[in-house]
Amino acid sequence: MNANLQMSAEGKLKHLLTTEGLPPEILLQILDTARSFCSVTERQVKKVPLLRGKAIFNLFFEPSTRTRTTFEIAAKRLSADVVNLNIATSSQTKGETLLDTVANLTAMHADMFIVRHGESGAAHLIARNVGPDIHVINAGDGRHAHPTQALLDMFTIRHYKGGFNHLRVAIVGDILHSRVARSEIHALTTLGVPEVRVIGPRTLLPRHVQNLGVHVFHDMAAGLKDVDVVMMLRLQHERMSGALLPSAGEFFKSYGLTPEKLAHAKPDAIVMHPGPMNRGVEIDSAVADGRQSVILPQVTFGIAVRMAVMGILAGN
Amino acid sequence: MTLPDAETLLAELAQQIRRDATPDTALVGIYTGGVWIAERLHRMLGLSTPMGTIDVAFYRDDYKKTGLRPGVKPSDIPFKVEGADIILVDDVLYTGRTIRAALNEIFDYGRPTSIRLAALVDRGGRQLPICPQFVGARVEVALDQSIELRRAQAGRFNLALMSRGA
Questions:
Q1: Which value does ipTM take for this structure?
Q2: Preceding peptide of A147 cis, ω within 30°
């Protein structure tokens, strides 16, 4: 998949499809801009006029509550008009129908598409086929990428830890099926996190994952030792075929984040989760609702980060 | 041409505002130069209301042409805007478009009783019906030139004449 598709010839961000290959300056511009949008949401009028008159289409071919809602709120706070389309897809959905849908919406004068799709590369396909003034944001494609989730996670880390270049970060669980994990790894390494670890059973780690510049652990005690940030992932039953796991209970015993396992991390480590959580599968309620959890602030920051992405794209 | 000394202009501006200001007068500086000036004025005038800072990036009328520039600063107005008497502070007043954006932004915080405008330098060339109540000096500058406020390490201000596009 061509990452350069998202950059214009002048080096400006035109679409946001993946965090892979994005220069640190652009990642930081998004995080800085998001910080400014945070203060907008604390005012009497929680809106700015930036995208007044723009039509933004939320194209969701896969179910989502949090991501779709926060994109919708973000677009509305930028004064854009938002149309939500939840399109149930059959497994036969092919590029042609997808592009037909997009062509029809373009005929309705769409300015931006936010795309969630079960197939990897769907947002890229759309970006390659839209007119020059239309912007595409990938809101999750198959196992491939979920760049705005990764960016809001980076924002959360910077908010609580003050920066990146002194951190040890562990990503835990079902890395194999996780577009979030892939996008996080690219963003963390680009922003200069010196040690990124992935922790999970062999069956849920992609082969050659260490080629992404991460340290691989199969044991929670060793993997969580002295980390500053624990990024949990959802166990993705719906993407699993075959016997990758003995059972959810077995998974929890080995990899579920309990207070006992979390005690291996630094005492001020933060715990993150992209949602939706499977309580008692990958995370214990005592941790999810505990002192170190920043799971709900992640959701709040997600709005400001998505405002920043839309605001930057629409102006480029 | 030689530009006036920025420190002298600041003293002049402070004197004008002092005649009018009450302890409740609230200053709002516009990033970046306007914030510098407002910080100094706030100290010089001994105002009790904490000063506000705004970055008008999300309200600019040239967004469609230029997009969002990197380095946007968070706006912060730490006093109640509803009913406040505000003096908006900028370094160099030119077309008035920044001021228009700032007025719109302030009203999204609440409805102030009044807003007046203070500028260190007014270089003319207004494109909107905006007029400052407090001005350090009026300066004639060629269209292809711009005036920039600089802050030296010790915090001392000076004005520099720049060619546009340079």
A1: 0.88
A2: no
